[in-house]
Specification:
Layout (H helix, E strand, L loop, with lengths): L2 E4 L3 H10 L7 E5 L37 H7 L3 H7 L6 H12 L5 E12 L5 E12 L4
Parallel strand pairs: 1-2, 2-3
Antiparallel strand pairs: 3-4
Length: 141
């Protein structure tokens, strides 16, 4: 593994999405929870993100990425309604659903695994001890 993300929040989810499809770079992320969750219990009805939708997981780095928020809307038949609503700040509930969609489709995410130890080896590389947690699985949905 060239790069291992510990935890699957928006930052490592973005990293995994941007690395998806890059040849020659082996990237994986592990998360102890059984599925992607963003701020569980704090998704207050009507609350929006504090940044515009273009600051999704990938668009500012790769506007052509299949993991963009706009592509998520398109796949749901909601791109034109979103456009005509003229909203730059999306509801937090919707952002979490978008992130779950990405997490459920990326092959380089592993849920139900806990990184229990990280240590530096004599050759300078890092070794990570990973163990399964209850409800182990490999997808984010």
């Amino acid at each position: 593994m060239d790069l291992l993300g510990i935890g699957v929040g928006p930052a490592n989810l973005a990293l995994a999405a941007l690395a998806d499809g890059l040849s020659g770079l082996r990237v994986a992320c592990v998360e102890e929870r059984p599925a992607f969750r963003w701020h569980p219990g704090l998704l207050i009805e009507g609350a929006t993100l504090q940044v515009p939708f273009l600051a999704d997981l990938v668009t500012l780095v790769d506007p052509t990425s299949r993991w963009s928020f706009l592509n998520w809307l398109r796949e749901r038949g909601r791109l034109f309604p979103f456009y005509f609503a003229e909203r730059f700040h999306i509801p937090r509930v919707e952002y979490e659903a978008y992130c779950r969609w990405v997490a459920g489709r990326l092959p380089n995410l592993r849920f139900g695994l806990r990184a229990e130890e990280v240590r530096r080896e004599p050759d300078g590389l890092l070794a990570v001890r990973i163990a399964p947690t209850a409800g182990a699985g490999a997808s984010g949905d």
